[in-house]
Write a structure and sequence with these properties.
This is ABC transporter permease. Keywords: Membrane, Transmembrane, Transmembrane helix. By secondary structure, the protein is mostly helical. The chain has one domain. It has ten helices and no strands. Helix 1 crosses helix 5. The radius of gyration is 18 Å and the shape is globular.
Length: 236
């Protein structure tokens, strides 16, 4: 029940601060962009846009929301309630994953129609969004200014764009199999061609493992750099 309350609080907070309105404009811009792409390239463009969308949404918005909440003094009173840190983090990840999923379908349907494997496609979007959201929270917790957060979040995310080099046929390496975004591309491309079961299993496994790892890191970062500072401020 606490987790659901935290989720609805996050959705209302994001709506009140105009995140949904901005994202509607972004989706409309993506939709217009797709209309000008030649038909033979639309599938590849749809995968690329769908890949970048949950990544950018989670990476930029989650840390930005955390900084905004910190400026508004929300974190101290929030954890005076029975809400737990895990519930707070999962509510953030879930609220942005829902927004990412809606945006991904809004981009994909006009470009390429109904995916052949809608469940794999949707799970790819959700797991990528949650990974990037938790990564963003971990980075945002460690920095006090928007400029520092924006710079460091890009540096943290840089290794995870490497699978795009394989996607464009520029460079391939077995090391990409260890990256969560390789799993993302596999699941998004399953919208057109369902991969072999072993490759599909690998995509889910690598995304789930990275989500678990980044959750632990984001939780530690939040406890150390946000909650401990809030407690120190209250003691002064």
């Amino acid at each position: 029940m606490r987790a659901f309350s935290a989720l609805t609080f996050d959705i209302r907070f994001q709506w009140r601060h105009g995140f949904y309105a901005v994202y509607m404009v972004v989706c409309a811009a993506y939709w217009l962009l797709v209309q000008f792409i030649p038909e033979p390239l639309r599938e590849q463009a749809a995968v690329l846009l769908t890949f970048s969308d949950p990544s950018a949404l989670g990476l930029l918005m989650a840390g930005g929301i955390l900084l905004l909440e910190r400026d508004q003094g929300i974190h101290g009173p929030l954890f005076a309630s029975p809400l737990r840190i895990g519930e707070y983090l999962l509510a953030k990840a879930a609220s942005l994953a829902l927004l990412s999923l809606a945006a991904a379908w809004a981009i994909h349907l006009p470009a390429a129609g109904m995916p052949d494997a809608p469940l794999s496609f949707s799970l790819g979007v959700i797991l990528t969004s949650t990974f990037m959201t938790l990564l963003s929270i971990g980075v945002g917790a460690r920095h006090r200014t928007v400029n520092a957060f924006l710079l460091m979040s890009q540096l943290y995310a840089l290794p995870f764009v490497l699978p795009l080099l394989r996607f464009f046929g520029i460079w391939d390496s077995p090391i990409m199999l260890l990256l969560p975004t390789e799993g993302t591309l596999t699941l998004l491309q399953s919208a057109y061609i369902l991969p072999p079961p072993l490759k599909l299993l690998h995509a889910f496994a690598v995304l789930l493992l990275w989500n678990a790892a980044v959750y632990a890191w984001a939780r530690t970062s939040y406890e150390r750099y946000v909650l401990e500072r809030e407690k120190a401020r209250e003691r002064q």
